[in-house]
Predict the structure.
Amino acid sequence: MITIPYLTAVSTYFSYGLLFAFGQLRDYSRRIFDWWSANNLHGYAPICLAHEDFYIRRLYHRIQDCFGRPISSAPDAWVDVVERFSNDNNKTLKRTTKSTRCLNLGSYNYLGFGSYDEYCTPLVIDSLKKFSPSTCSSRVDAGTTSVHAELEECVAKYVGKPAAIVTGMGYATNSAIIPVLIGKGGLIISDSLNHTSIVNGARGSGATIRVFQHNTPAHLERVLKEQIAEGQPRTHRPWKKIMVVVEGIYSMEGEICQLPEIVSICKKYKAYVYLDEAHSIGAIGKTGRGVCELLGVDTADVDIMMGTFTKSFGSCGGYIAGSKDLIQYLKYQCPAHLYATSISTPSAQQIISAVKVILGEDGSNRGAQKLARIRENSNFFRAELQKMGFEVLGDNDSPVMPIMLYNPAKIPAFSRECLRENVAVVVVGFPATPLLLARARICISASHSREDLIKALQVISKAGDLTGIKYFPAAPKKQEEVKDTIKLD
Amino acid sequence: MDTNLVEMFRAGLNWVTMALDAPSARVVLFGVRIQWHIFVEVLLGFVIVILLSQKSYKPPKRPLTEQEIDELCDEWVPEPLIPPITEDMMHEPPVLESAAGPHTTVNGKDVVNFASANYLGLIGHEKLLESCTSALEKYGVGSCGPRGFYGTIDVHLDCETRISKFLSTPDTILYSYGLSTMFSTIPCFCKKGDIIVADEGVHWGIQNGLQLSRSTIVYFKHNDMDSLRSTLEKIMTKNKRSKNLRRYIVAEAVYQNSGQIAPLDEIVKLKEKYKFRVILDESNSFGVLGRSGRGLAEHHGVPIEKIDVVTAAMGHALATEGGFCTGNARIIDYQRLSSSGYVFSASLPPYLASAAITAIDVIDQNPDLLVKMKQNIALLWKGLKDIKGMSLASDPESPIVFLELEKSSGSTKEDLLLLEKMADRALKEDSLLVVSSKKSFLDKCRLPVGIKLLVSAGHSESDLIKVSESLKRLASELLL
């Protein structure tokens, strides 16, 4: 749980209040200025109302250079970040032709498949030459190739379920599958910090949505009991079905879901479990099979397992794994399967080859090495950051590490300072996180070497000192002096 | 006698009044003489105050006891997650063993492919394969991140600039999946309370976007401009416009469900008269319609600035994956932060973006591809014009040739099974891949179902003759 120090909370509110006040002042003067110049809308309502994009215009644009940084090489451990400049105070940014080589701590490249791979890429190029980048057709018409069929078998075997269905985008998987499985008269109970794709899919289904406290099985049980006893709102009819949606690793917290308790509660109350393993498949567990393997949950107990291939497999797309009947029904009804273009064939080949490498079926032990390396790297990095006094979230073994920043001014300061020292980090603020809880998120990869991590630690420590984000006392056994003076900018 | 009584009564009354007035006869409070009725009124006031402060009667609340809750939980039986699997759900699609070009291989046999939206025959083009190979060697396959967090690769920015240059629009934004383009764009601009007038034949992606936007949706008859005009008229008279109410018309350039082409010039005239904005989906018309393939605006001679938002999926004429949205700078900039399919999802794999750039270059340099495709459509129309049991329902210039059933059996399910049988027989007996309509229960479109043929510039004349003969034969066998 995040416990924000009182003084930090007050200063963060004050900073936001100041930014808000200045933004309103500028909006007001802009309105007066525009009143004099002609209005060229001719009777149409404005397409974006003033208050809807207030945040974008007055707060986000000031720090726009910290987001959306273009790169000009593969998203590997070291990446070329393109330099940008602005002539109008950060409102628009233009590319230059120069780029700096930076250590990449922001891309989701957990097992290092994000760039040219000696086993995977030649196979991908072969399949590209044979099948072309796209089939231009949906899966049911002429979009199923032998590679797609092989991919679904391979994914099902890897995840540990009888069958699987693959779509071309992870986000659309959630939006298209949840409405097929549950509709009006059903209940979806989702974790309070679930991803936007799950929220959109749940809204699109028409079912009633209830939220339980993040990762708290006791609260889930209370909500379930209450809801089953009460029934549907207003009519009090019994619910048609109940589905509990959780994620394997929560991408903004780095926490691993408490799956064994949640599964046992759902079994007791006869609810269906939907597990979204976008970040955890391939990254945790002894053979990379995700949170079920790590926590010892039988895959037959989880009804629907969903995941994406973007993070650990270096490709694109999403999958759903379940029983044979479930997958057959989804193939018959799921809109993403019936109407959308099938996943690109070379991407499918990349996933198959990546799974083969992870399982060691390509004849080498690179897969086992990668899995061991990502575990070691994550645990080492997290321990070192905590020793330095940073507030780091997330459980052990999780490759996602958010470092708390809180104050809005520290967001660009930290990001720019790290970039100056050639380390590329990702900073996240409102609206992806709650208003007060801005953070910097580190994603460790198996392709980071120990020297890379040590350099990263040095740079982050220096930037942390400059911005004053070492909220906890540093471990005393280091010979550096205790940090009792915090420099504020 | 009675005057006596009256006098006595009056005297009694006077005496009572005096008696009651006596205590306060000379009291003057705040300049007002106090009289006896003041006491009565004060007493009444107290009674009212006491009554109001009493709690009203509520029947006692009896919440469920723990034991009752446990019993209810034990008794509750959920529905199964999926309905029981029936025979028709087990249908397997054909598995291709080579690229999905005009000719492909299924089960070892060579098959003529009319089921891929490969309108200009760019599948298998060597320039595309070359640029993809070099992109794969440089960037790997995936982009490993959303656009905001180091997932923006320079090919994405180049692709966006190239599309803007091709269509002469100020700016473009790239999406990683064709289907998600529409259902991310629409909720960005349409919020609760706005009014959207949409064609009833739009595909599922648009329907999902309309549902997610929570605006008021009004459907008009498929591709019927009179219906559109009367709907707009009705809306404008009902809502004496509020200043901040936004109004949109949503249409597709070439409808995926019926092959009709939207009459853009009339839509633009109506839009300007009633002050609506137009959102147009050009998935099946980009690279196909117009003299140089610039889409529906060029086809009808309408300047593209008049269309407010243009979206398209690239999985059709451009033979790659993903989608884009183009329009003026304000609209595109707004989507970069508020469109959920752009912000919360990984970006397009770089090799697909470089394929898109190369495809547009090829279209620019080879206008004869369009001519060939239009010739093929005309030939196919000639071959199919006297088919029995089905009628050509699409526009003569659209690359989607749609044969709808003339006589429906009454139930959509039966129709779909019949069409599926027809497509299976076409594959087995004549080695032809055609599209039979498929419907998910989530799809609200009620247009008639039929067989779709997607014409490509790579088809030869013999292919077209073969498919016409085969369909005519199958239609006469199965539909009469």
Observations:
- Chain A touches chain B through 119 residues (CB under 8 Å).
